[in-house]
Amino acid sequence: MPPAAAPPAGPKPLSAPARALARLGLVRDIDLALHLPLRYEDQTRLAPIASLHDGVAGQVQGTVLECRVETRARRQLLVRIADDSGELMLRLLHFYPSTQKTLAPGTLVRVRGELRAGFLGREMVHPEFRAVTPDTPLPTGLTPVYPSTAQLPQAYLRKVIASALPRAQLDELLPEGSVPAGLPSLREAVTFLHNPPPGTDLGALEGHRHPAWQRLKFDELLAQQLAQAQARAERARLRAPPLRARPGGLVERLLAGLPQLLGGSLTGAQQRVVAEIAADLARPTPMHRLLQGDVGSGKTVVAALAAAAAIDAGWQCALMAPTEILAEQHFRKLVQWLQPQGIVIAWLTGSRKGRERREMLAAVADGRAGLVVGTHAVIQRDVAFARLGLAVVDEQHRFGVAQRLALREKLANRDEADEGDDGAQGLEPHLLMMSATPIPRTLAMSHYADLDLSTIDELPPGRTPIVTKVFEDGRRAQVLARIRDEVAQGKQVYWVCPLVEESEHVDLQNATATHAELSAVLPNTMVGLLHGRMAAAEKAAVMKLFTDGTMQLLVATTVIEVGVDVPNASLMVIEHAERFGLAQLHQLRGRVGRGAVASVCVLLYTAPLSPTGKARLKAMAETTDGFEIARRDLEIRGPGEFMGARQSGDALLRFADLAEDEPLLLHARSTAARLLADHPQRAQRQVDRWLGAKTEFLKA
Known about the structure:
7-stranded parallel sheet, Rossmann fold, globular, disordered C terminus, alpha/beta
């Protein structure tokens, strides 16, 4: 009987460096070509050993005189080398038998590292080294140092990138006249950045100001502008239900009651954005609009009027907020405004379970609930809408890109449950996103270029400016005295902490300890505690005591960042303010100053402050303008938080800097329109080259 045939060999397992490349996304030749250096080393010259200075990196060449393993404090390899000018000790803490073989006595080695004074004299710890011959040539250009990992040695990375460069598709896709004057071709730019010649201005290279860098930034910005335009055009082909308010219907009745409900009419800015949204809703194509306005500018009432238009037209509206506290704030206001008009409002959150949840789901599914308010629970699988016409997403940047995409898919009326409804079949809902973090101009032109933007740039009358004071935490006694004064005058106070309970790893004032401390030093004051780990019923009970004025002082974590509206609150203290982001500090500050009462925000910090911490606190002290705060925040942090890209794990821009590259962005915007109109195939190749699968994020 013949022997059984051997099973076919499986795919050859990847080496550790190859796996590390894959984890970094370096799979295609173009990926490697666009993996650009962080910095450069000048290895074009050799220095005499005697000329090296302590603390300065240098490259020398010498003969190994001695190579021995020491095991006293820890196992290490000591190698002594010499040239005509002197001797140098190399200290290697991690090494293999092959290392000892390479550094055998008599071997000529080329070494690069930082000199320091050691126990055995002048030494380098873990320098780069390799065996050479007297005629081994020196590099003719600067040596790139790439972003890498422990499993990916620089020598290996340099080798694979050099191999990939000639194969990478870097052909010129852009027609003549498209590229800003004075910039090189793409292949010239990429080749130069991997192999800059000696004498190149390192400051311009590493500061990304060199023309080669400018070319890459322009191409990346152009790809993003093209993808945004394509996303907008794709949405324009979709159909949505036209939502027109009826004469004498819900919208008109709500508008008529607003002076009594709000204590005044809509501001001019609110009236303008309401008209913009109404015009969008009346069209048979899906609205995709971002409503931005500073803290307290009145976005909720604008959302209520949009919801009323959808309900007026016989459709449903869903409003989704990132936290249960914010969702509940919206729910309470909307119940107050819309329920007297006969509108059924469903409330869906993760904490609502059992019979109550089943009843809510039934009301949503059969269309009785005209408005559905909740957290991410709104997009869970068991939620089916009868006729969803409008989706409103508040604080949209707080949701990850994947969640926003899931929302859009969920709300697209494609579920099997919708197949029997001929009114909703095949239609997309309109989408209104809201943000109290104003979008800086460059960000609006880049990451949000596919959106229509409405801005409420006017606060309701009667608001008093908030005074912001920055104190070191040694002045807590002074702050406590101010709290006593505020409470004695019948006002209310927030005290915000970054942690719920004490941590062994992070020494921050925590909410539970602060609550105990303040309760002790203010015995005649009701002090409440609010944090995200509390049950929903507990949170609601605490918030009710504070909002109705029974509780004078509320110690809280950032669960109160958005949505909490207590006009009588006049003082906010933020503990360890240096640990919060600038946008978050501005949002927290917006919890006071919501009425006619003069308000103060105290930022307590712990020294020493980092440069970033100083910049944040300086910005907070200098301005209460949310748009200026947003501009400075973009400078400090980049666009990730605005986009929610932190949750996506993938920034949409790798090379361009929106704080510095506005001229390139403007050129890319005008070029994108011409390229799409005249060269659509080239435009698509440009998008594929630079963005690939990341274009999916733009649909969110």
